[in-house]
C-alpha cells in the first residue's frame, strides 16, 4: 500500500511540530525519517498511524482518503521504542491479541490462531519463548515480539518509532540487518523513525531528513550523504568541518578568522574529514597547521589539526597514516579534495572551480 | 539467601528488632490481651454468644454493608481515580484534595451530616422518601456512611497504578484493531486488578471497624440496623465484659480470614505474570536455550 502525505501541519501550542509536510511513500519501500529530537519525525509517524490528528492536510492510503480513520481502522502495524508489550500476557497471547480482538465473523478459530502465532514466532526466531512473560525477555527479544505482534494482523503498512533506540549497539546492528531482510521478504511498505544516521543510511531505501518540522531532503542514502541539499543535512549526516568563506566568482575564499565584510557574499564551506589530504610541504591552496592529536579509531585514524585558533578534523586511512608518519606538534599542510559551499541564504552554490585560502 | 549475608546498608538486626517490638507493642499486645480475656470462656460459650439471634443479625448487617460499601467504591472509586489521573479539567486539584476529606473528618461529624441530609426532612431525604427510598435510620444508611468513609482507600490505591499504565500500551491495542471496550477489558483492567483488590480490601477492613459515622445514621434497631461494634459497646455498658470479648474475638477471626483470603488472591494475581522468578535466573536460562 502506498502512502501519500499532503500538506500536513501540526502545532502543539506555540510549537510548530510539522509545517506543510508533503511526502510520497510508494508500495513496498522502506523509508527512514531521520532528524534530531524535536524535529517532528515521531509526530509525523503518529499522524500516519492515526494516534495523533493533524491540524490540517490529508493522508491518503493507496490513493484513498484516510485522514479521519481511527487508528484501529487503518490497518497499520506500529512498533514502539519501548515495546509497549502487554505485561500480563504471555508472549503467545501478546502476538495473538490482534487476532482475538477481530469482530466475531472475521476472527480465526483457535487452531488457526495457534498456527498463525507459531508461524510469526518462527519468523522472529523466538518460538521457544511462547509461554514466557515479557518481563522475562531481553530488550532485543521484546522488540522482536512487538514486531511479531504488529505483523499478526497483516498490516498494509509497518510503522516503527525508534525501534532499536533502547537497545545496545551490537543487538541494534543485528536487528536492523534482520529488519531489512524481513522487509525484503514481506514487501510491506515500512516507515521507521530514527535519529541515528548510520541506521538510516544502512537500512532504508530512501531517507527523509527532517529538521524543525520541515523536510530538508528526500533521497537515497547515497544521495543524502554525498550531495546534501542544505547545510543542516551536511552537518547532521556525518562529521564535517565548517569554514566561513566568501564566494567570489569561481573562487571560494576561505578565511577562518574574520567574517566576510559584504553580507551577500558570505558563505559557508563544508568539508568532510575524509576529504582532506595532509602533506608535508606547502602547496598551492593548502593551509598550514600543527598536529594536535592522533587517534586511531578502528579502521581509520582521526587527526586533529590546529590552524590558527581553530581545530580541523581529518580522517586518514591506516595506510595513509603510516606513510605520513605524523607526530604530535609537527607542522603540516592540509588541502581539501572536495568542498561544498552554501550561500548566506543556505542555498547551495555551484561548486567552485578553485579554492583560495586567505589569511 | 541467609539472613546473615552481607548487605550494602547496615542495621538489619537493629531494624528487624525495632519492627518486632513496635508491632508487638502496638498490635500483638492488645490483641493478645483480648484473646487471653476470651480464653476465660469455653469455645462452646463463645459460639453460644456469637450465634445468638441479636449477635448473628449484627454480624450479618456489619459484613453485608461493609462488602456492599467496598464493592460500590471499587466501581466508582475506579472511575474517580481514572478521571483524576487521565484528564485535566479546571478545579482538578481541588477535587483531588476533596477525596482525602473522609480521612480527616471526624467520623461522628460525617455520620451526623449524612443523617441530617438523608432524614425525611433533610435536603436529599425529602425527595427520596416520597419515591420509596428510605435511607436514614435503615441498613441502607449504613451502606451510605461506609461508602463515604472508605472512598479514599480505593482512589488513593488506584491512582499511582493508573499513572503507571503507559498510554503506549493502549495505542498498541488500538493499532492492533481493539475497540475502546476491548482495550479496557483485556489490557487496562487486568493491569489494575491487583491494586483494585488491595483498595477493596482496605475499604472493607475500614468499614468493618467503622463505628462513629454509622451509629448516627443507622437507627440502631436490634436485629435490623445494629452493627457489631455497637453491640459490643452496649454489652460493655451492661458490664458484660466477657460477652463483649467473645463478640470481639469472633469479629477478629472472621475479619482476619477474609483479609487473608483477599491478600492471597491479590498476591496471586500480581505474581502470576512474573512467576516469582529472579530476573538473573531467567536471563541465564534464556541465553542457555539460545545456544
Describe the overall structure:
The complex is a heterodimer of chains A (359) and B (291). In chain A, strands 6-7-8-3-9-10 form a six-stranded mixed β-sheet, sandwiched between helices. A five-stranded mixed β-sheet of chain A has the order 19-13-11-12-20. Chain A has a five-stranded antiparallel β-sheet with strand order 14-18-15-16-17. Chain A is built from nine helices and 20 strands. Chain A is α+β, with helices and mostly antiparallel strands. Helix content of chain B is 76%, strand content 0%. Chain B contains 14 helices and no strands. The interface between A and B is medium-sized, with 36 and 27 residues.
The first-to-last residue Cα distance of chain A is: 57 Å
| The first-level CATH class name of chain B | Mainly Alpha
Helix content of chain B: over 70%
Number of helices of chain A: 9
Q: Sheet with the most strands of chain B? A: none
Task: Please provide the ordered H/E string of secondary-structure elements of chain B.
Answer: HHHHHHHHHHHHHH
Indicate the low-confidence ranges of chain B by residue numbers. Answer: 275-291
- Structural class designation of chain A: alpha+beta
Rg of chain A, please? 25 Å
The class by helix and strand makeup of chain B works out as mainly alpha
Considering DSSP H and I runs of 4 or more, what fraction of the residues of chain A is helical? 25-40%
Biggest interface found: A-B, 36 and 27 residues
Q: What's the short story on this structure?
A:
The complex is a heterodimer of chains A (359) and B (291). Chain A has 359 residues and is of the alpha+beta class. Chain A has helices at 41-49, 91-100, 110-123, 139-152, 169-186, 197-203, 221-226, 231-236, 318-324; strands at residues 3-12, 15-25, 30-34, 56-61, 64-65, 76-79, 157-161, 189-194, 206-211, 214-219, 241-248, 251-254, 266-271, 276-279, 287-297, 300-307, 310-317, 331-336, 340-343, 354-357.
Amino acid at each position: 500500500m502506498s502512502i501519500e502525505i499532503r500538506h500536513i501541519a501540526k502545532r502543539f501550542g506555540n510549537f510548530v511540530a510539522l509545517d506543510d509536510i508533503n511526502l510520497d511513500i510508494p508500495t513496498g519501500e522502506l523509508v527512514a525519517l531521520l532528524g534530531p529530537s524535536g524535529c517532528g519525525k515521531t509526530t509525523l509517524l503518529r499522524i500516519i498511524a492515526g494516534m495523533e490528528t493533524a491540524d490540517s492536510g490529508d493522508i491518503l492510503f493507496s490513493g484513498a482518503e484516510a485522514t479521519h480513520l481511527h487508528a484501529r481502522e487503518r490497518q497499520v502495524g506500529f512498533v514502539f521504542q519501548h515495546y509497549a508489550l502487554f505485561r500480563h500476557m504471555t508472549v503467545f497471547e501478546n502476538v495473538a491479541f490482534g487476532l482475538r480482538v477481530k469482530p466475531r465473523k472475521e476472527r480465526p478459530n483457535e487452531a488457526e490462531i495457534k498456527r498463525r502465532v507459531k508461524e510469526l514466532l518462527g519468523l522472529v526466531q523466538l518460538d521457544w519463548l511462547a509461554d514466557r512473560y515479557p518481563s522475562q525477555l531481553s530488550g532485543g527479544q521484546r522488540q522482536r515480539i512487538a514486531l511479531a505482534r504488529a505483523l499478526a494482523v497483516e498490516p498494509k503498512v509497518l510503522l516503527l518509532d525508534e525501534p532499536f533506540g533502547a537497545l545496545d549497539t551490537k543487538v541494534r546492528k543485528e536487528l536492523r540487518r534482520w529488519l531489512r531482510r524481513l522487509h525484503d521478504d514481506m514487501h510491506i511498505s515500512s516507515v521507521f523513525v530514527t535519529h541515528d544516521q548510520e541506521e538510516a543510511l544502512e537500512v532504508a531505501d530512501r531517507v527523509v531528513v527532517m529538521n524543525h518540522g520541515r523536510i530538508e531532503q528526500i533521497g537515497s542514502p547515497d544521495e543524502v550523504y554525498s550531495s546534501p541539499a542544505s547545510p543542516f543535512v551536511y552537518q547532521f549526516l556525518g562529521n564535517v568541518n565548517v569554514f566561513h568563506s566568501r564566494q567570489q566568482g569561481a573562487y571560494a575564499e576561505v578565511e577562518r578568522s574574520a567574517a566576510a565584510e559584504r553580507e551577500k557574499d558570505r558563505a559557508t564551506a563544508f568539508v568532510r574529514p575524509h576529504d582532506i589530504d595532509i602533506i608535508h610541504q606547502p602547496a598551492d591552496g593548502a593551509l598550514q597547521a600543527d598536529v594536535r592529536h592522533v587517534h586511531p579509531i578502528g579502521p581509520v585514524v582521526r587527526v586533529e589539526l590546529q590552524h590558527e585558533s581553530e581545530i580541523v578534523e581529518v580522517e586518514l586511512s591506516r595506510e595513509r597514516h603510516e606513510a605520513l608518519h605524523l607526530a604530535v606538534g609537527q607542522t603540516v599542510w592540509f588541502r581539501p579534495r572536495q568542498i561544498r559551499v552554501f550561500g548566506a541564504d543556505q542555498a547551495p552554490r555551484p561548486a567552485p572551480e578553485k579554492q583560495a585560502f586567505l589569511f | 539467601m541467609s539472613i546473615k549475608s552481607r548487605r550494602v546498608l547496615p542495621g538489619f538486626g537493629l531494624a528487624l528488632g525495632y519492627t518486632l517490638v513496635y508491632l508487638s507493642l502496638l498490635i500483638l499486645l492488645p490483641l493478645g490481651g483480648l484473646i487471653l480475656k476470651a480464653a476465660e470462656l469455653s469455645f462452646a460459650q463463645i459460639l453460644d454468644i456469637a450465634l445468638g439471634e441479636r449477635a448473628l443479625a449484627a454480624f450479618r448487617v456489619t459484613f453485608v454493608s461493609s462488602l456492599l460499601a467496598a464493592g460500590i467504591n471499587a466501581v466508582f472509586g475506579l472511575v474517580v481515580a481514572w478521571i483524576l489521573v487521565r484528564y485535566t479539567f479546571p478545579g482538578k486539584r481541588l477535587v483531588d484534595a476533596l477525596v482525602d476529606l473522609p480521612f480527616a473528618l471526624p467520623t461522628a461529624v460525617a455520620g451526623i451530616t449524612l443523617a441530617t441530609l438523608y432524614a425525611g426532612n433533610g435536603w436529599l431525604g425529602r425527595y427520596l422518601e416520597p419515591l420509596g427510598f428510605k435511607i436514614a435510620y435503615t441498613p441502607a444508611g449504613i451502606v451510605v456512611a461506609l461508602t463515604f468513609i472508605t472512598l479514599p482507600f480505593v482512589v488513593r490505591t488506584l491512582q499511582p497504578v493508573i499513572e503507571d499504565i503507559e498510554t503506549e500500551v493502549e495505542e498498541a491495542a488500538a493499532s492492533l484493531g481493539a475497540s475502546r471496550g476491548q482495550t479496557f477489558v483485556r489490557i487496562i483492567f487486568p493491569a489494575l486488578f491487583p491494586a483494585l483488590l488491595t483498595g477493596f480490601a482496605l475499604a472493607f477492613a475500614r468499614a468493618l471497624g467503622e463505628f462513629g459515622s454509622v451509629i448516627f445514621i443507622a437507627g440502631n434497631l436490634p436485629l435490623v440496623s445494629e452493627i457489631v461494634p455497637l453491640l459490643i459497646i452496649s454489652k460493655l455498658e451492661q458490664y458484660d465484659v466477657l460477652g463483649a470479648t467473645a463478640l470481639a474475638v469472633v469479629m477478629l477471626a472472621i475479619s482476619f480470614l477474609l483479609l487473608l483470603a483477599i491478600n492471597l488472591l491479590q498476591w496471586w494475581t500480581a505474581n502470576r505474570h512474573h512467576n516469582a522468578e529472579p530476573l538473573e535466573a531467567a536471563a541465564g536460562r534464556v541465553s542457555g536455550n539460545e545456544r
